[in-house]
């Protein structure tokens, strides 16, 4: 939650520039038949800059803010009062300004800052308790008269005391262990965990030197004030310098969402136009010379735009909760934002189905055994060599003819959809209003229809949508004409009483090749029509809602928006919940690019096969003791122990008498801090990451030399170059989140080197060395910093490998297993949704108590989780392939294939759910047109049909368990065969799917469900084969072999038996019968 000032409306130019397609404004490109003016030099430079760096105006504002806060912290040290306040711990102010991440949107930043402050105060209290124990241990062994030495403002130094050192070491181990266990349990507290670890490391290193609590309290207070001052400077920069609210981020997401939708619809139209000339059954291929040899490249472009759109959808789902609970001056409330996002999602789903058309064609070719490496786009029917080639060439020619006939209606509805999305952007004030046309201009254009943003556009849009729905009959008439079915002119007005001329193939059996092929072709035509009309209808509903908001006056005035009590309570509860809405706002340890998603209680809660539920007090107390053991055996405890051991490997040097001075003078505690920053519960052992961090630290050392010596050590010049060089680390955090630790460590390294040098210059060498640290000039200090940082990183890597490695490969496998669990969850909800819709039991979806509302909410929630996890897995798999392998090569290609197939299966699951919604929509309408005899008969026939199967949920859950644990799959595991609903309906009523009913409103929905179910099961078969290749399959098959065969001993298990009536011995072996 935060307070924001100013309007939440973004400047359209900046947002549209960021989301524009690079090829839209090419110099000299022709658009709509006219040659565009030549691109100016300035515009060309701007376009190239954005293409290469992705740094637009808003991005640079974030870079500026992120670099400004630590620069202010370091520059303020030139003030005498400031320097006297912080003395030798002043560089922690700059470090905390970096870890506070002031470039975050305001709601995220405020939430992070509140937790940081509470965490810092808590660790300070624990540190004071630990210091009290160390001081008490010293006094109990040496008495109260201990010689000491100190400089003004410095840390008191005293003779070595083994008891105090031992107590401090124990407290450090416990503190680091507890902090990192909590960090692993609650990923949303990653940044506070790092800050707490910094405080604990520094305070426990100096704790054995204090002879009284007065000195300990003074040091703890100075350190606490340094941390809080860094937070304060970061807060000032976040609030006052280029303030960015979470609402602005969401509106920018909405602008990009609508722009991406428009681009996706345009890409879909281009793909449909390409089907007029290309072989629809051949995938896109390019030869070594870069020439197009097969398939449609437009399909790849369309898929690329959809991947970008789904990634933006996942990002918006993360940004939206922060915008909803933000206190801000704006126009739309939290509920308005939530509803807009849900309606945009409903528009996206049909586009998702359209992007799967090329996959459906590939599946048809694969099922028929056609050679997809060849293109038959320009091959005449007379050149066919066999029956299969003849069928394929005939199919390609038919699709060319069909798509030419569908060009005009599909182009018309796509233009209407594009204008509808533009109208929504204008109404929501996401882009400027078009210049209002006069009547003379409209007459000159020859188009009197209202334009986007004008009054009456919604009515015009609905009329065009209805015209497209009516054109469906012409599409079906064209399909019939292509296949020699002669229909009367008024056939679709009364198909029950009209006769038509049927070609010979319609008299074949329902399972004949011709009938199956042509039925699939018809289904594909209906598939395209259904999804385009459904998208147009959802856009109409979104336009209606936007105009309702406009009519209510919400866009005319700016008001103070305050979240309600329920939303604030939910926000507070999310701090303690594993399913908090803050999972991604505070995680900077994302080098593996994993996504933390709460899987639900059912994923973790397992039934204990060795214990019944406790029945009395004694058994419940015993369960508590067992819970303690389970806690110490948990992965979180394992991670905490690794970090604590890695930290103590360095800290032990500070607690031994012979090495204490070396530890202090060489500043080895920064190696401890690097361990806390670099070790992460979500990132495994990786040589690549280790070398990247070393490289980042080395570059930071070089930059610190450049910043210092290029201006001959002048303070003002050093600060300017320090500010400039910090941009690089922040750029890595913003644009390459998988390399975030590299950016953070680089910023901290350059801060340590330059801030210390400026600190010594202000305080003087004597004061700077009062804490026992030796002074070194910057050309020596920088390599020492590099060595300490590298030492900490190396120990962190060692303790990720020892005693057993936690590799990124194993994490990718486990995350893939978790994604299967989510997919099973989504399929289960989808299965129940389809079942109640086909039986008419969804109820009023507007009521929160209805089954339809609850299922829809659960389905959206799980879909967002699936999208986030799969996007993270794709990025993680792409990044892992650059790792340096140890041992056998990691099967990256297989993992990428499984992830792609899972995304495809999820898309088709969504499509089946979308198609089933049409039956519920038809049931709600009371007019006779939609209460047709066909629909009544269809519902009666499918009442007991199992369109989806519970066995798929079982299959996905088994694959999840096998991948998570690395165990083999059970034997004889199969994907259930698709429910042949069309064949079943033919058996029950041979007229139910005849040509007379192809224009029925529910027929298209039935076609989409058939295609979606079939393709989903095809994907699951490929996924099952891929998982079997990864984890294996148990094999209990035994065969009889002769004892004379030497190969029988190759079997790992044999059963020997003797036949009672024969002297020849046989064995039953896990082998081949001989």
From TrEMBL:
The keyword Coiled coil does not apply. Residues 8-17, 27-37 have a biased composition (Basic and acidic residues). It is a multi-pass membrane protein. Residues 662-799 form the Integral membrane bound transporter domain. GO terms for cellular component: membrane. It is found in: Membrane. InterPro entries: ArAE_2_N, BRE4-related_DUF2421, Memb_transporter_dom. Keywords: Membrane, Transmembrane, Transmembrane helix. Residues 803-1033 form the DUF2421 domain. The chain crosses the membrane at residues 83-101, 113-132, 164-182, 189-207, 219-242, 690-711, 718-734, 740-758, 778-799. Its main location: membrane. Pfam families: ArAE_2_N, BRE4, FUSC_2. Residues 1063-1074 have a biased composition (Polar residues). Residues 1-37, 435-455, 1055-1074 are annotated as: Disordered. Signal peptide: none annotated. Residues 54-439 form the Putative ER transporter 6TM N-terminal domain. This is ER transporter 6TM N-terminal domain-containing protein. It comes from Salinomyces thailandicus.
């Amino acid at each position: 939650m935060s307070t924001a000032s100013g309007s939440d409306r973004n400047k359209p130019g900046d947002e549209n520039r960021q989301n524009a397609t690079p090829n839209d404004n090419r110099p000299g490109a022709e658009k709509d038949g006219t040659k565009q003016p030549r691109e100016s030099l300035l515009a060309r430079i701007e376009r190239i800059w954005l293409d290469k760096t992705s740094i637009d105006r808003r991005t640079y504002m974030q870079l500026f803010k992120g670099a400004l806060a630590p620069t202010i912290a370091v520059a303020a040290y030139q003030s005498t009062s400031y320097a006297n306040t912080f003395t030798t711990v002043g560089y922690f102010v700059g470090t905390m300004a970096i870890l506070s991440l002031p470039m975050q949107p305001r709601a995220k930043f405020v939430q992070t800052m509140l937790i940081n402050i509470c965490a810092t105060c808590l660790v300070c209290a624990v540190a004071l308790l630990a210091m009290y124990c160390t001081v008490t241990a010293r006094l109990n062994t040496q008495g109260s008269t201990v010689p000491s030495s100190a400089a003004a403002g410095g840390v008191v130094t005293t003779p070595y005391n083994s008891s105090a050192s031992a107590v401090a070491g124990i407290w450090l181990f416990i503190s680091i262990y507890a902090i990192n266990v909590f960090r692993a349990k609650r990923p949303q507290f990653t940044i506070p965990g790092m800050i707490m670890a910094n405080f604990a490391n520094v305070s426990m290193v100096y704790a054995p030197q204090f002879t009284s609590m007065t000195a300990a309290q003074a040091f703890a207070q100075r350190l606490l004030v340094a941390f809080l001052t860094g937070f304060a400077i970061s807060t000032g920069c976040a609030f006052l310098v280029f303030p960015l609210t979470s609402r602005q981020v969401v509106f920018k997401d909405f602008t990009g969402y609508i722009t991406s939708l428009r681009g996706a619809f345009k890409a879909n139209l281009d793909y449909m136009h390409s089907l007029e000339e290309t072989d629809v059954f051949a995938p896109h291929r390019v030869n070594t010379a870069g020439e197009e040899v097969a398939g449609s490249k437009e399909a790849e472009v369309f898929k690329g735009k959809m991947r970008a759109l789904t990634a933006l959808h996942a990002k918006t789902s993360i940004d939206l909760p922060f915008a909803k609970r933000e206190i801000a001056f704006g126009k739309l409330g939290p509920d308005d934002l939530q509803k807009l996002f849900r309606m945009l999602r409903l528009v996206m789903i049909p586009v998702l189905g359209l992007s799967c058309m090329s996959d459906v064609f590939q599946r048809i070719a694969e099922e028929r055994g056609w050679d997809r490496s060849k293109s038959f786009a320009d091959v005449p029917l007379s050149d066919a060599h066999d029956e299969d080639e003849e069928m394929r060439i005939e199919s390609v020619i038919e699709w060319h003819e069909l798509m030419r006939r569908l060009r005009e209606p599909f182009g018309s509805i796509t233009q209407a959809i594009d204008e509808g999305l533009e109208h929504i952007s204008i109404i929501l004030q996401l882009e400027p209003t078009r210049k209002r046309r006069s009547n003379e201009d409209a007459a000159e254009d020859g188009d009197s229809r209202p334009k986007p943003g004008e009054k009456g556009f919604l009515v015009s849009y609905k009329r065009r949508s209805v015209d497209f729905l009516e054109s469906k009959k012409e599409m079906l008439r064209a399909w019939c004409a292509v296949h020699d079915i002669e229909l009367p002119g008024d056939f679709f007005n009364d198909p029950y009483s009209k006769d038509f001329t049927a070609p010979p193939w319609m008299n074949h059996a329902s399972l004949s090749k011709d009938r199956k092929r042509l039925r699939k072709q018809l289904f594909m035509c209906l598939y395209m029509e259904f999804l385009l009309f459904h998208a147009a209808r959802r856009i109409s509903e979104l336009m209606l809602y936007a105009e309702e908001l406009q009519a209510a006056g919400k866009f005319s005035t700016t008001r103070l928006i305050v979240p309600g009590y329920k939303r604030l309570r939910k926000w507070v509860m999310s701090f303690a919940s594993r399913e908090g809405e803050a999972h991604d706002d505070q995680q900077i340890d994302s080098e593996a690019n994993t996504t933390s998603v709460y899987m639900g209680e059912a994923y973790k809660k397992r039934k204990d096969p060795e214990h019944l539920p406790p029945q009395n007090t004694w058994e419940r107390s015993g369960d508590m003791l067992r819970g303690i053991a389970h806690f110490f055996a948990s992965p979180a405890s394992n991670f905490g122990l690794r970090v604590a051991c890695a930290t103590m490997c360095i800290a032990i040097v500070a607690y031994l008498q012979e090495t204490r001075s070396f530890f202090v003078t060489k500043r080895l505690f920064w190696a401890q801090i690097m361990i806390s920053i670099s070790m992460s519960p979500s990132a495994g052992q990786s040589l690549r990451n280790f070398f990247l961090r070393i490289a980042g630290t080395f570059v930071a050392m070089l930059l610190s030399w450049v910043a210092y010596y290029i201006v001959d050590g002048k303070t003002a010049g050093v600060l300017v170059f320090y500010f400039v060089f910090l941009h690089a680390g922040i750029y890595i955090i913003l644009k390459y989140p998988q390399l975030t630790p590299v950016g953070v460590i680089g910023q901290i390294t350059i801060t340590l080197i330059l801030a210390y040098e400026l600190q010594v210059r202000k305080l003087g060498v004597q004061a700077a060395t009062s804490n026992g640290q030796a002074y070194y000039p910057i050309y020596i200090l920088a390599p020492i910093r590099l060595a300490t940082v590298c030492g900490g990183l190396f120990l962190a890597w060692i303790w990720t490998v020892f005693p057993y490695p936690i590799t990124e490969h194993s994490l990718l496998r486990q995350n893939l297993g978790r994604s299967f669990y989510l997919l099973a969850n989504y399929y289960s909800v989808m299965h129940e949704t389809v079942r109640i819709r086909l039986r008419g039991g969804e109820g009023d979806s507007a009521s929160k108590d209805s089954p339809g509302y609850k299922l829809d909410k659960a389905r959206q929630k799980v879909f967002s989780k699936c999208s986030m996890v799969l996007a993270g897995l794709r990025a993680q798999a792409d990044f892992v392939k650059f790792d340096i392998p140890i041992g056998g090569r990691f099967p990256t290609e297989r993992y990428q294939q499984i992830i792609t197939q899972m995304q495809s299966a999820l898309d088709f699951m969504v499509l089946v759910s979308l198609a089933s919604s049409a039956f519920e929509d038809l049931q709600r309408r009371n007019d006779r047109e939609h209460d047709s005899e066909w629909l009544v008969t269809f519902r009666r026939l499918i009442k007991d049909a199992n369109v989806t199967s519970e066995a798929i949920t079982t299959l996905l859950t088994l694959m999840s368990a096998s991948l998570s644990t690395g165990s083999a799959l059970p034997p004889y595991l199969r994907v259930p065969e698709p429910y042949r609903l069309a064949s079943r309906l033919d058996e029950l009523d041979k007229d139910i799917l005849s040509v007379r009913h192809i224009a029925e409103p529910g027929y298209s929905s039935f076609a989409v469900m058939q295609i979606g179910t079939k393709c989903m099961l095809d994907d699951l078969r490929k996924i099952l084969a891929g998982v079997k290749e990864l984890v294996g399959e148990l094999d209990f098959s035994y065969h009889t072999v002769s004892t004379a065969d030497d190969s029988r001993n190759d079997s790992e298990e044999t059963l020997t038996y003797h036949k009672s009536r024969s002297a020849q011995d046989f064995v039953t072996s896990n082998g081949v019968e001989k």
